[in-house]
């Protein structure tokens, strides 16, 4: 009888609304290459983020690669980042010919530990690339102070932080540039999609052109760019989903509150505390099992046996993966707090349509 409960479920508009939105695409036969839907979503997001420049990409990963490429750092330069993230973050650094240097994380927010950044800075360091993990905001003030003192760039992976605000300021407006993912599994989706957000006027042309082979005009190829344009169907999905965003986040909030009510103050269960001055987006519900009767893996398996799919997110740590085993900066033992969390964390099912009855069932299996 029970259907499988996955860790996430994509938000979708009513189908009639999407059909209405894509009709002009049928009429115009203009499917991609910065058409009217692309331009409309870009303009709407500039307002939404309250950020002067937003450039849309076909996915978050290529947006992050372009964000990094836009600084033209010398090959072999070092970028201080977190190992407690999705593989995309680290790959975007490496695929730009740069070297990721892994900094441990803060035990309360799982974001980069700003007290440990300075000791990792070398003459080769050019940037800090932190991640707003689970929508928890990094310590943006401390990071900016460090960056200013050492003349470093700050590039945020804000893939989890759509609609999050710190002291009333949208998460898109910190550091030199921020990347967002609009992947199907994120709080806001364009099926696949992503964006870079920034203030520097001099980067507009470059970041617009990098997603289109570096082509600036009919006879001008000004940069070495790839192909990462958001197409019209993706943009139409985003335009629809943006209309429903506030309601979707409100529903997530109810799920979050029920989880908090049922799992708070239980020995062996550690939850993220709400952050001061932060308006959250309830993107994920991470639980760290520490000093619990059962291991994380046992709890994962028990949930699975009940057709409930939680996620070991993020596990393994990226500095413990085969892809980075030959890097001098690899080794999970160098980032012990991140390793501790990666070995104990589960993100529980979290999406707007998750019923509160299902939340209760999930919690009762865990509490059992
Ligand atoms: C989803 C995600 C990405 C990549 O975004 P895509 O849109 O899937 O390419 C990068 N970093 C983090 C932290 C993510 O969660």
Task: Give short descriptive properties of this protein.
368 residues, Aspartate Aminotransferase, domain 2, seven-stranded mixed sheet, three-stranded antiparallel sheet, 15% strand, globular, binds pyridoxal-5'-phosphate
Describe the structure.
There is one protein chain. The chain is of the alpha/beta class. The chain has 2 domains: 15-239, Type I PLP-dependent aspartate aminotransferase-like (Major domain) (Aspartate Aminotransferase, domain 2, 3-Layer(aba) Sandwich); 245-367, Alpha-Beta Complex (Aspartate Aminotransferase, domain 1). It has helices spanning 15-28, 36-49, 60-69, 87-94, 140-150, 204-210, 232-263, 296-305, 336-342, 356-367, and strands at 53-57, 78-81, 99-102, 125-129, 153-157, 165-166, 169-170, 177-181, 194-198, 215-217, 220-221, 269-271, 278-279, 285-289, 345-348. A 7-stranded mixed beta sheet has the order 1-9-8-5-4-2-3, sandwiched between helices. A 3-stranded antiparallel beta sheet has the order 7-6-13, with no helix packed on it. Helix 1 (15-28) runs antiparallel to helix 7, helix 2 runs parallel beside helix 7 (232-263) and helix 7 crosses helix 10 (356-367). The model has no long low-confidence stretch (mean pLDDT 97). Pyridoxal-5'-phosphate (PLP) binds at residues 59-61, 85-86, 88-89, 131, 157, 159-160, 181, 183, 194.
């Amino acid at each position: 009888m029970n259907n499988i409960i996955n860790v996430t479920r994509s938000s979708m508009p009513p189908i009639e609304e999407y059909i209405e939105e894509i009709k002009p695409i049928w009429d115009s036969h203009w499917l991609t290459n910065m058409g009217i839907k692309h331009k409309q979503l870009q303009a709407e997001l500039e307002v939404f983020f309250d950020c002067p420049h937003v450039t849309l990409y076909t996915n978050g990963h290529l947006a992050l690669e372009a964000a990094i490429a836009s600084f033209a750092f010398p090959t072999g330069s070092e970028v201080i980042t977190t190992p407690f993230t999705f593989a995309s973050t680290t790959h975007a650094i490496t695929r730009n010919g740069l070297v990721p240097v892994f900094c441990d994380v803060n035990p309360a927010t799982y974001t980069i530990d700003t007290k440990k950044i300075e000791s990792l800075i070398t003459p080769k360091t050019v940037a800090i690339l932190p991640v707003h993990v689970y929508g928890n905001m990094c310590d943006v003030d401390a990071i900016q102070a460090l960056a200013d003192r050492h003349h470093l760039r700050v590039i945020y992976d804000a893939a989890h932080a759509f609609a999050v605000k710190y002291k009333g300021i949208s998460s898109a407006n910190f550091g030199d540039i921020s990347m967002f993912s609009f992947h199907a599994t994120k709080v806001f989706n364009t099926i696949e999609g992503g964006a870079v957000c920034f203030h520097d006027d001099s980067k507009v042309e470059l970041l617009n052109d990098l997603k289109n082979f570096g082509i600036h005009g009919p006879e001008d190829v000004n940069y070495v760019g790839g192909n990462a344009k958001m197409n019209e169907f993706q943009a139409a999905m985003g335009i629809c989903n943006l209309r429903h965003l506030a309601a979707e986040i409100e529903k997530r909030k109810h799920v979050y509150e029920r989880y908090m009510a049922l799992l708070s103050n239980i020995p062996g269960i550690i939850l993220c505390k709400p952050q001061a001055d932060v308006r959250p987006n309830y993107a994920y519900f991470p639980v760290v099992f520490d000093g619990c009767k059962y291991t994380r893996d046992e709890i994962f398996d028990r949930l699975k046996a009940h057709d409930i799919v939680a996620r070991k997110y993020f596990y393994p740590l990226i500095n413990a993966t085969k892809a980075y085993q030959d890097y001098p900066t690899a080794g999970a033992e160098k980032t012990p707090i991140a390793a501790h969390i990666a070995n104990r964390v589960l993100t529980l099912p979290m999406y707007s349509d998750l019923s509160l009855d299902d939340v209760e069932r999930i919690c009762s299996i865990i509490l059992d």
